[in-house]
Write a structure and sequence with these properties.
Layout (H helix, E strand, L loop, with lengths): L1 H4 L5 E4 L21 H5 L5 E4 L5 H13 L2 E4 L5 H4 L4 H7 L4 E6 L14 H7 L20 H24 L3 E6 H7 L2 H10 L16 E5 L4 E5 L3 H10 L14 H6 L1 H12 L4 H7 L7 E3 L3 H6 L1 H5 L3 E6 L3 E6 L23 H8 L4 H9 L5
Parallel strand pairs: 1-2, 3-4, 4-5
Antiparallel strand pairs: 6-7, 7-8, 9-10
Length: about 375
């Protein structure tokens, strides 16, 4: 989808039954069998349905591979090789093809053949063990963050491989997997364990190594405050009327504040609890330290800044009339980066792709449709 935002012609190859994510609802798009979950990650794509287990379906895949720059797949390792549409077959057809496989655990190792979902990788990679309240159970993130970060790693790898091909003329295979991405995303927690043997803990919204750096309950919600330096801590103390904390030996630097975490958090919590999120947002407007309220989605999209940066886009949709999506977050000085096409209906572009991209004549297309090779 990120490549599509940048202007790539993205063809989503689906089985005749379609992407399972189409069924991940409710809610579903009006007058449609497609879920809004599917909507969230499939803009700027065209859909073609192919029975790629059939010989004629494989030939369509071969023709697509011959003309395409990049192929992305997320099957269990070896599955597409069994169907004769894996990298070893396709690189013969198109030696310049960039082939990116995204799997749960990668193509080697004892877990290679295991299926993988976001939450499984998040569990096995340590994220769930360090997410949640200190005295609570492990907790998953609110969105499939391991899926998202793996996709972003794949995007970067594909762009790098395209640049490499531009320089050398050579295509290549890329392997991304959820577990490796999750473990690499554990950054400081993983590094501290590897070098110091200290296990990561659940801190709720707090930070293991910085204090104060967490959510504080206000009159009507929560404010998150983060101080990463002594000057920022001093600024916080001044703004909330607790200047005496600046010279208090217990809190004179971050190490001392970590050591005396409970006491400093208690003092700040008492103050933050006296006002609303709106009041604190105004009071902290010119603060040197980062801060902000914990927002519901309603609050997010009513925020004046979010409105000003025009992140929400409306796209025409054949069933719903229009649908709203969150547009790409990156702004380029030159070139395009935008949500242009609503997610496709199942097989919406099959005829168009066969005729205008692959150059099939009408009789051949009708034959493939009649035999249920495509739909």
């Amino acid at each position: 989808m990120t490549l599509g935002d940048l202007g790539a012609n993205v063809i989503k190859v689906e089985s005749l039954d379609g992407d399972e994510a189409r069924k991940w609802g409710p809610p579903f798009i009006k007058d449609s069998k497609d879920s809004f979950y599917f909507l969230s990650v499939n803009r700027n794509k065209k859909s073609i349905c192919i029975d790629f287990k059939s010989q004629e379906g494989k030939k369509v895949i071969y023709d697509l591979a011959r003309k395409c720059d990049v192929l992305v797949e997320n099957f269990v390792p070896g599955k597409l090789d069994q169907l004769e549409i894996g990298y070893d077959k396709l690189k013969v057809i198109n030696p310049k093809l960039i082939y990116c496989a995204i799997t749960g655990f990668g193509p080697t190792g004892p877990y290679a053949k295991k299926p993988g979902y976001d939450v499984i990788a998040a569990a096995m990679g340590g994220l769930l063990n360090t997410t949640g309240e200190p005295d609570g159970d492990p907790c998953k993130a609110g969105v499939a963050i391991t899926d998202v970060t793996t996709g972003l790693h794949a995007f970067g790898a594909i762009m790098t491989a395209l640049y490499y091909r531009e320089k050398t003329g050579k295509g290549q295979r890329i392997d991304c997997n959820l577990l490796s991405t999750q473990i690499s995303s554990m950054i400081n927690i993983a590094t501290i364990y590897l070098n110091c043997g200290i296990e990561g803990q659940r801190w709720g919204t707090a930070h293991a190594n910085l204090v104060p750096y967490q959510a504080f309950k206000s009159k009507d919600g929560y404010m998150v405050i983060g101080t990463g330096s002594n000057p920022q801590f001093a600024d916080l103390c001044s703004i909330i009327g607790k200047e005496e904390l600046i010279t208090d030996e217990r809190f004179k630097d971050n190490s001392k504040r970590v050591e005396n975490r409970k006491e400093i958090i208690r003092i700040i919590s008492e103050v933050i609890g006296t006002k609303s999120n709106k009041e604190w947002s105004e009071i902290f407007k010119n603060a040197s330290f980062p801060c902000g309220p914990i927002n519901k989605m309603k609050d997010v999209f009513e925020d004046e800044h979010v409105k000003a940066i025009q992140l929400v886009k409306e796209l025409p949709h054949p069933d719903a009339g229009t649908v709203k999506v969150v547009g790409p977050p990156t702004v380029y000085g030159l070139g395009g980066n935008d949500a242009r096409l609503a997610p496709p209906r199942l097989g919406q572009h099959t005829r168009d792709i066969l005729a205008n991209f692959l150059g099939y004549h009408d009789k051949k297309i009708e034959g493939l449709l009649d035999k249920k090779v495509v739909q």
